[in-house]
Amino acid sequence: QLSLVESGGGSVQPGGSLRLSCAVYGGTLEEYAIAWFRQAPGKEREGVSCISSNGATTKYTDSVKGRFTALRDNYQNMAYLQIHNQRPEDSAVYYCAADRTSSWDSFCDFDGMDYWGKGTLVTVSE
Fold first, then answer.
1. Rounded CA separation 46/29 (Å)
2. Distance CA 52, CA 105 (A)
3. What whole-number distance in Å separates Cα of residue 48 and Cα of residue 92?
4. Cβ-Cβ contacts under 8 Å for 54 (sequence gap 6 or more)
5. Residue 24 has pLDDT above 90, yes or no
6. Nearest-5° angle of CA 36, CA 76, CA 15?
7. Cα separation of 64 and 95, whole Å?
8. Can you tell me the distance from the alpha carbon of 12 to that of 91, in angstroms, rounded to the nearest whole number?
9. pLDDT tens-digit map of 37-95
10. pLDDT score for 103
11. Which DSSP string do the residues of the chain spell out, in sequence order?
C-alpha cells in the first residue's frame, strides 16, 4: 500500500514561488507516474501536471504552462512541483497522486490514479 504525503504549501504573494513536495512511502517510486491535482473552494478538482515514472515526460494544463515544473527523484522516493510567478487563481489544495505503470516508463496522464495524498494548501494573496 503506497502512502503519499505532500508538504511545502503556504501563503505567498502574487508573483512568488513555492516548491511542493510529495514523499512516497511503502513502494518504489520508479513504478509510478505522479500527477499533481488541485482543488479550489467551490470548484472541481483539476489535474495540473504529471510526470512519467522515468521523468522523461511531463504534461501541464494550459493555465500553468511556463510557471509550474514537475520533478522527481526516484532514488529518494520524492516528487516535486515547482511553482513560479504565482497568481491568486492558483490558490487551492494541491494533491499528489500515483499511477502504477511500468518501471521507468515514459507515459503519464491524469486518469486512473491508484493512490492519493491528503493535500497541502496554497494561498496566493497580497
1. 23
2. 6
3. 11
4. 30, 104, 105, 106
5. yes
6. 45
7. 15
8. 10
9. 999 999 999 999 999 999 999 999 999 999 999 999 999 999 999 999 999 999 999 99
10. 83
11. --EEEEE--EEE-TT--EEEEEEEESS-GGGEEEEEEEE-TTS--EEEEEE-TTS--EEE-GGGTTTEEEEEETTTTEEEEEE-S--GGG-EEEEEEEEE--TT-----SS---EE---EEEEE--
pLDDT tens sequence across 79-117: 999 999 999 999 999 999 999 998 888 899 999 999 999
Amino acid at 22: C
Q: Using alpha carbons only, what angle is made at residue 78 by residues 31 and 36, rounded to the nearest 5 degrees?
A: 80
Decide: residue 93, CB within 10 A, 0-12 exposed, 13-18 middle, 19+ buried: middle
